Amino acid sequence: MPEDRDIPLEHWPRRAALEHFRRMAQPAFSVTVPVDVTGLRDRAARHGATPWLAYHHAALEAANGIAAMHQTLKADGSGVREFAVIHASTTVLRDDGSFGFLTLPREPSLAAFAEHARPRVERVRQGSGSLFAGDEPGDVREETLVHMTALPWLAFTAFTHARGTGDDRPKLAFGRFVEQGDRLLMPVALDVHHALCDGVHVGRFFERLQANLDMI
């Protein structure tokens, strides 16, 4: 099994960029891209998944294919830690009108991902009070999470995320499906810490995301 590793910075190609951006008060940048989800509902159903679960899975698999999205700045400032596998945390609208956080462990198979996620979604949907009520992260560590959310009411063209001090996790937002000609498109916003990710990594992520959606 692959293991987490520390990246030695002495000969790391991105060391100069890391040192430049980590000192900034706002070191993250965000890109919003429309992705093609034509026919996703029917394709996802064949795997026992809703479109919501399908695009979460496609995005998590895309993120797992980008090494830069596995990385975090070490708290002591000594370098970068790269996780072997990353997982997702997303938001679920509760029955009482509030929202809760849901941990979605990585499963390479969409069918397995959907099977494990469905009861997790229902527990969080029925929760109240704490933002984490009903969530069962198991052995998934918080620092390995890609933060996700869905706004199915809005076909947004830009999006910003809340970030706490020291928060360098990749963040994703999925928007409303919109018809454009004979295609169905969905806006996806990706927000990353520039000390760890550059435009090339964002570009590769969206290429992988579209390919994953197409292959469902």
TrEMBL record:
InterPro entries: CAT-like_dom_sf (IPR023213), Cmp_AcTrfase (IPR001707). Pfam families: CAT. This is Chloramphenicol O-acetyltransferase type A. It comes from Pelomonas caseinilytica. The lineage of its organism: Bacteria, Pseudomonadati, Pseudomonadota, Betaproteobacteria, Burkholderiales.
